Amino acid sequence: MNNIQQKTKELLESGACTLIIGYEKGTGGKARPVFVRKAEHAAKLIFDESCDQNIAGYLYRQEIKNESKKAIVANNHTLKSIVELASENQIHEGDFMVLAFTAEGEIIELKSFEEIEKHVATLYHGLNDEDKATMQKIEAMTMEERWGFWENEFSKCIKCYACRASCPMCYCPTCTVEINQPQWIPVPSHTLGNLEWHVMRAMHLAGRCITCGQCAKSCPLDLPIHLLTYKVALDSEQYFDSVAGTSVCANNVLATFKTEDHENFIR
Amino acid sequence: METNNNNSFEPKVVAFVCNWCTYAGADLTGTSRIKYAPNVKIIRFPCTGRIDYMLLMKAFANGADGIIVSGCHPNDCHYTSGNFHARRRWMIFRNLCDFIGMDMNRVVFSWVSAAEGAKWAEIVNTTVDTIRQLGPATSFQKLIKNSVFEEVGNE
Amino acid sequence: MERKLLTKDSYKLLISKIISGKYQLVAPVKVDALVDFRRIKSADEITEDYIVTVSSAKSVAFPRNEKLFGFEKNNKKLEQTDFDFDSIPHTVLLGVRPCDAMGFASLTSIFCWDSVDKIYTTRLERTIIIGMSCAKADASCFCTSVKGNPGNTAGNDLLLTKTPDGDYITEIVTEKGAKLVAEFYELFREDKGAEKEPLLANVPEVFELDGILAKINSKFDDEVFWSEQAMRCLGCGACAYVCPTCACFDIQDESHGKTGQRVRCWDSCGLSLFTLHTSGHNPRQNQGQRWRQRLMHKFSYMPDRLNTVGCVGCGRCSRACPVDMNIAEHLKSIIDN
Amino acid sequence: MARIGVFICHCGENISATVDCEKVAKVASEFPGVAVSVDYKYMCSDPGQNLVKEAIIEHKLTGVVVSACSPRMHEPTFRNACAEAGLNPFLCEMANIREHCSWVHEKGDATTQKAIDIVRTLVEKVKRNEALAPIYVPISKTAVVIGGGVAGIQAALDIADAGHKVVMVEREPSIGGHMSQLSETFPTLDCSQCILTPRMVDVARHPNITLYTYAEIESVDGSIGNFNVKIRLKSKSLDEKVCTGCGACIQKCPVKKIPSEFEQGLGMRTAIYVPFPQAVPNKPVIDRKNCTYYIKGKCKVCEIVCPTKAIRFDQEDSFVEVQAGALLLATGFDVLKTSAFPEYGYGKYKDVIDGLQFERLASASGPTKGEIRRPSDGQIPKKIVFIACAGSRDPAKGREYCSKICCMYTAKHAMLYKHKVHEGTPYIFYMDIRATGKMYEEFVRRAIEEDEVKYIRGRVSQVYEKNGKLIVRGVDTLLMGQPVEIEADMVVLATAGIANQGSEELAQKLHVSYDKHKFFSEAHPKLKPVETNTAGIFLAGACQSTKDIPETVAAASGAAAKVVGLFSNDMLKRDPLIAIVKKSPPPVYSSCTGCFMCIQVCPYQAIDKEEIKDRNGNIIKTISHINPGLCQGCGTCVAFCKSKSIDILGYNHDQVYAEVSALLNE
Amino acid sequence: MQKKIGYYPGCSLEGSAREYNESVQTLAKAFDVTLEQVPDWNCCGATAAHNLNKVLSFALPARILANAEKAGMENILVPCAACYNRLSMVQHELGKNESLRNEVNAIIEADLKCNLKILNIIQFIQMFISDFVGDKQQLLFNKKVACYYGCLLVRPNDVLGFDRAEDPQMMDEVMKSLGADTIDWPFKTECCGAGLSVSRTDIVGNLSGRIVKEAADRGAEAIIVACPMCHSNLDMRRPAIEKAIGEKIDIPVIYISQAIDMALGKTQKETGINRHFVPVNIELKKKEAEPQVVIEKTEEK
Question: Quick check: helix, strand or coil at residue D330?
Fold first, then answer.
């Protein structure tokens, strides 16, 4: 814990960094993202289990992109997203410093994308037990039950787009929902349009979702929408051996193909 | 699901096909005068690679009861690999739709070459039969109905 | 103010009678893991286990989607179906927190500012608001900082305060409230005069409102200030959509073939699309400017033009925010800065 | 406001027999935006087309829907008619109510209703069509021929004789290819080198041909008419301009025991070498992997003996770039090595050889001066077994195809053997004999009847060595599956013809598609046999599939004719139905966010990066850019792009969305 | 730590190939591996089932796989080459054919995932032998041996993925690591006559005879096998073999697991070689203190 404060203080004092993107304690003890520019504020920074938010998305924010010497305190989700974002050309090696943690909690600096890749390779990539169980529960349902489940969930969606805003992979400056010729996604939040939105969002994350679950964590209505992108991520791995956030030079699962790809569903 | 009115139910099926194989195959069905059910209407695309899954969603959102997506057999794509890309996309899309409880029996994927006029007729007829059995796509129809805000008041 | 007592049994009875009568009843219910307003069919559905509901009560008068009119094109001719005011139901809104109830005044000031929005006012007119005082609060609550309090009657037609016995002190705030009590007079007893204050939650004051109101305008041009505040803001619409006073909306035409509808639906100044011009120019280019708009609108423009503060201190925006943009904390820093 | 004209064709009775055309026309006239809707007996007739043209002028139409047969039939007809009336041809669409409606359904309301639905769909599409102009691309009239075997030689000479420049690229030190290795050719048994070497010399001398040997394609970009080809000239360690080809260096080179590629490992060569005496160009190269100087840092005998001082030890690879209008692939084939056959000895028995090795044994210029002697001990084999279809037609070896040339050359080998070893016995194990060329069957009969070659119909399961003999165990299927065992002195496997080494990398460099066996794919198996799916790149010979010499030469001339045909124009006209990256005004410029995944998707390498700069030249953002000369309009990138920043002309988002909506909603 | 591996012995190892089972158990103990039997296992169907009924031939092995999956096993050792072949084939087929899988699932009332790692005896040995050679080995297998693979272990190659189908090397490598000199011979995957053992012993005599004779001619002192069927044909049918080839050959036939057990210095009872028809009269040399044995990779040309 103190080693993060110590390390960032040194970075800011030495001038090696002018901005640290990390976590601080927020309302009711929850962790939240924080931006520290002064050495005396380094004491605000924390890193513990509560810091599970994926903050990689800040790296390509215009205001932050322009900062020359910045460092990000990256949890495992954030690291994977950094790899994926790099593979999608949204962030570039050397533009920021990455502070991560070993399994023992030791703070380390990952100096290149290659080092991040290596570190990510040591991390667990599957779903957590709770999500696994929910996935299994849903998959065990009949088709009608599944439809009922999701219809209920989608009916609650208010289209605030917190899921989109909080996902590091949703970086398009003009999202498809903002296109009105044609209007791909209806603006009002009826169940039909909500369903279309969530299906599209999941499809757009095919081979890109690193299964951090940030979308669901951000949803004010607690919709389990992360399961949709997980489904797509699991299928990408199962059928096409593609795991997002593991390789900077990987091609996207839907941008590539093999002639021998699975096709027993095609007549 | 009520299916006792099957006799009067005429499924609405949209076919998304590529120009070079299946569209030409359907032309051959015509020149061969092979008869099939009139429920299926075709939209022409340059390649299966062009077929956006969101259009499939839109078809259901506009009241389709079923969908056929068809293109060139593997290795026969006019553009070499559009159908391979499409196949991957379908695979992921299909599983996702199944996961949210959409009835994937309503979506038929097929390869129909320019020489397979008879296969096209067979695909259309079996698809229409299947969907006649399944009945109207009531799950989507309910959503379409609810998307028109007739009921005033708090949901 | 006239007070009555509603015993816990007659409370249940009142609910059943309302439901079976001419009203639809909207009340907090458990929706999976959350508590939110829903139209209910039985008293058992109601829950009292909440600090505030996830969404505010505003959708009773300002639904998240509202069909303004329908249209149909036939033989190149267009026919329009106007809004049917008779379709607006008579509603009893139960379990509203005092902060929420106070929010309707803000909404009304907007919807009746230059012209009167008849759909909104009719909906509100046909709604009887039965509030419920707060016995609990959390770290996001700050009603006392914006001239509210956990037992505030303003905006309610009736306000209930639960006693340790499980009965409800009923304050009759408005004429509408009185009429409802009269309608079900047999259920109400004479009030025993129990003290209400001790039953209420303690909500400490975070900032001094007058200080904010006095200083916020001077901050308008401080780009760095707003940009630093909004640094972690992701630019979604969660805060606005759960807010009891946010009134911004978008108007959309939706059509399928020949028929269509014009819909009014919620919008949010937090979204970049909100101010995007067709030309590509966006007068609010960054999240700092959008965040400034949100705060200025509530604490400068509305007080200046509508003589009301656009915030009731419910704290919903902070709770809904994926990155904990705590509005009270940010407001406080205006004074501190 | 759209003013659409709808023209319903009866097609005689082809449509009107089952579709109520008058009703369709009447209903269509009421569609929003339709200015005129008429039906007519034969829309494609002159009066029918005039109806369309007149309506365009009279009603100032902004779009036309001709509701008739398949667009694959008459779209050009009606688009031309529209153009003649002053309407951009791409504002005309066809509603297919014949092949897709009247011909496939019974007469009735449902059929008429379907026709109405189809027309409505196309009306909604055409409302969103844009006026487009064809794309013109200039042509560089130079052809690059890759591969200097008989196919490349033939094609290069044909193109050069037609007056166009040719650059030939050959990776070996000499042109000639496999044909120069062959002893005699079937079915005439004339000498291979005698017919080939004069053509090789012609190539070297032709004023229109530039020959680069010991060279490889480094990269290719650009498109039909304008390829930019970068060629790597591997260092020969020699100044060719100075070398006279006297051969003194070769005689004195101390490293003499390198297995010769040309002799298929049956003979030896030196480190500085020409592959064979008649090589073109007849100047040596130094094989750096085996040269003592390059390995140990001293020797330089060749430099000392060279009378013209032509040796350049420090020479490096160099590059030339060529602007070419067309590429011609003639990279030939290879044969599967015996090591692919563990059941036949896994390449460990010296006397189990492949067909190409036998060619060298039988060649008068070969390592044994044309005598058939076995590699292990130089003895003349008394019993020799030829195994046809070694690898070919064998899914277990991953090659289902017939190599096509082996039946003939195996018969030839057996004959040549019998002609040289009169007392010997040749056996041929075969599956079927495929002798379908001119004089081919007669040739095989000669082998059987005159030269008494013993043909055994059956497969060989195993070859193993025992007591100095090769035991060939097989089956004779004509004797009811009787097992056969032959104690042979030598075994020749007619191993499958396979794609040449490096063909996959080359195909990827050129973006030419190839089959699973790595042979290059033709654009159409029947109608475009010498074209690839990449416009401007053509194929000849065995790089497409194994071919014999006459077929190879025919294909080469065919491909050359295609190149010459292309070069007969100065400009190339192309359909504009291509993808574009959408741009918008500042400060957005484009919704493209530069993930560049579309680059991965594109089968044509048509997408590259474009920098958007401000007036001072500072880069504002980098987005995708689609090269209109390369894009073929498949639209895969369009469906892939998440922000829908790419659209495709003729099938754009707005059009197809409107079609879906119109098809399902009245 | 004790490693756990699922175990499917099949019928042979409970009957005619008891000694194979014994030697595998001994070996597992030496490797410090616990073999956990698949609960409630049944017949794999062998050759009989797929001659009769395709679905049955899938359902039988599928039930075994399902039981193993249900028991939470990740890999299972299947020493019998025939069982190994059936289980592997069925998992492969069901894995790629969804409709067949559904059909079989319905019959066996299970939900197959088809993700087990099915190990043959050689793969099992390779997993652990590297820790073991040099450490626990007491005797050097200083003999010239012929490794005989038969057909079921190696075919079809695209499913089973044996090193090289026509000239397999895996057993040779194991034997070399024990100090043996393995002969290069052409009959590694020849047919032994298989199930004709009972009905047409004469044919088995001919086919197995060729194998035994070739091994003997090339100087082998033992034949190493990994299949109960091969073993019984080469060992138990020795009288028929001798009748067919007209000479007496006494080289023993040893399971690969037995060979390792022997090198470990296990007793006849532990290795099960006392149960063979052709006596195993092999004296192994005591191993030198300094381990000289290196696992050699066969040269590929």
Answer: coil
- Could you say which residues from 136 to 155 on chain A have a Cβ atom under 8 Å away from some Cβ of chain C? none
Q: E242 and E271, same structural domain?
A: yes
CB-based contacts of C295, cutoff 8 Å, min separation 6? C216, C327, C330, C331, C334
Which residues are CB-neighbours of A217 under 8 A, at least 6 positions away? A52, A53, A166, A226, C322
CB atoms within 10 A of CB C224: 8
Give the orientation angle of helix A129-140 with respect to helix A226-240, to 10 degrees. 90
For residue C55, list chain A residues with Cβ-Cβ distance below 8 A.
158
- Domain hosting C265: range is 206-337
- H runs (alpha helix) in C282-323: 287-296, 302-306, 316-320
Tokens for D29?
A: 């006239």
Residues of D in contact with A256 (CB under 8 A): 600
- Predicted confidence at residue E133, as pLDDT, reads 67
* Distance in Å, alpha carbon of C256 to nearest chain D alpha carbon: 6
Q: pLDDT digits over A93-152, tens only?
A: 999 999 999 988 889 999 999 999 999 999 988 899 999 999 999 999 999 999 999 999
DSSP letter string, D472-530: EEEEEGGGTTEEEEEEESEEEEEEPEEEPTTHHHHHHHHT--B-TTSPBPPSBTTTBTT
Kindly determine whether residue A196 and residue B57, on different chains, have CB atoms separated by under 8 Å: yes
Does the distance separating the beta carbons of D648 and B53 come in below 8 Å? no
The amino acid sitting at C213 is L
In whole angstroms, what is the distance from residue E246 CA to residue D411 CA? 41
* Nearest chain B alpha carbon to C86: B152
Q: Residues spanned by CATH 3.30.70.3270 within chain D?
A: 579-649
- Is the predicted ipTM greater than 0.85, yes or no? no
Q: How far apart are CA D109 and CA D412, in angstroms?
A: 70
Residue E270 belongs to domain spanning:
132-286
Q: How far apart are CA C43 and CA C95, in angstroms?
A: 12
Contact by Cβ (8 Å): D414, D429:
no
Shortest CA gap C220–chain D (Å): 24
Tell me how many domains chain E contains.
2
Q: What is the mean pLDDT of residues D549-560?
A: 97
Mean pLDDT of E112-129: 91
A158: DSSP letter: -
Residue of C nearest to A215 (CA): C322
Give, as one character, the DSSP assignment of residue E236: I
CATH 3.40.50 intervals, chain D = 4-127
CATH number at residue E8: 1.20.1050.140
* Cα–Cα distance for residue pair D23/D39, rounded to 1 Å: 9
Residue type, D394: D
- The token duo for D198 is 């004069």
**Alpha carbon A234 to chain centroid, angstroms:** 15
- Phi, then psi, of E147 in degrees rounded to 5: -85, 125
pLDDT in tens, C224-270: 999 999 999 999 999 999 999 999 999 999 988 889 999 999 999 99
User: How does the average pLDDT of chain D come out, rounded?
Assistant: 93
Whether B89 sits inside 8 A of D657 (CB atoms) is no
CA distance A203 to A206: 5
Contacts of D5 (CB under 8 A, 6+ apart): D34, D35, D36, D37, D52, D55, D56, D59, D61, D63, D64, D65
Going by the DSSP 8-state scheme, the letter that residue A141 receives in this structure is S
Q: So what's the pLDDT on residue E134?
A: 66
Name D138's Cβ contacts closer than 8 Å, sequence gap at least 6: D225, D226, D570, D571, D572
3-class SS of residue C167: coil
Where does residue E255 rank: exposed (0-12), middle (13-18), buried (19+ CB within 10 A)? buried
Q: Are the C-beta atoms of residues D214 and D287 closer than 8 Å to each other? A: no
Contact call for C257 and D585, based on CB within 8 A: no
